[in-house]
Amino acid sequence: MKPGNIILLVICMIAIAIGMVIYFEASAFQKTAKITEGTVASSDATFYYVKYTSDDGAERTFKGTHSKNKKHFPGDRVKVFYQADDPDKSRISDGIKSGRKVIFFAVLLLILDIYLIFTNKKKSRSARSFKANGRKVEAEIMKIDVDPDTTFREKHPYLIECRWVDPITGREYTHTIRNIWSDPKPLLAGRTRIDVYIDRQDPEKYFMDIEFLGDLAQA
Q1: What is the largest CA-CA distance in the chain?
Q2: Given this model, what pLDDT does residue 219 score?
Q3: In whole numbers, what is the pLDDT of the chain averaged over residues?
Q4: How far apart, in whole angstroms, are the C-alpha atoms of residue 215 and residue 2?
Q5: 115: pLDDT confidence band, cut at 50, 70 and 90?
Q6: Distance CA 6, CA 109 (A)
Q7: Are residues 90 and 13 part of one domain?
Q8: Helix, strand, coil share (%) of the chain residues, nearest 5
């Protein structure tokens, strides 16, 4: 398992735990909460203040912090949840949805991480099999260039165009290595050829050994 997968796995597990804490705490709060409607009395750049009346007839104030995506303005009507035995203990969100969202996105990331772990293991098994049983040839590096068809954050990756000849069949093959996100010349360290392992039974199947180019490079 690669370090990046381990880090993402730990992050996912922590996020799921946090989401569950938020969800169960909010659920417990909701079970004993009363609901009323409040009005935003004032608002500044950071905070807003909601006036609401509890069952005992007392007017109370909830102090909230503006979120990045939503601001509250004087006159806005909001739903207020408060504890009957402690009416000053209030909130304007039930919290349950927030907990669910955290858990949902953490589970999605966890599924993605598991998929990446599985595919990486599959690639490693395939690579070991080709190296152990395949017929080794050397692909000549024909060209190193920037890939103008791929862009990420206004940056283009590099590509390497290669060719080799199967010594048994005499057939020539060409291949382009893509998604190299740093200049491959220092990684190549002066080499002009790359090892290729051909399936002895099916020459159309092959493995190009490009581990030295990084995890994102695609053979």
Answers
A1: 93
A2: 56
A3: 89
A4: 10
A5: very high
A6: 12
A7: yes
A8: 35, 35, 30
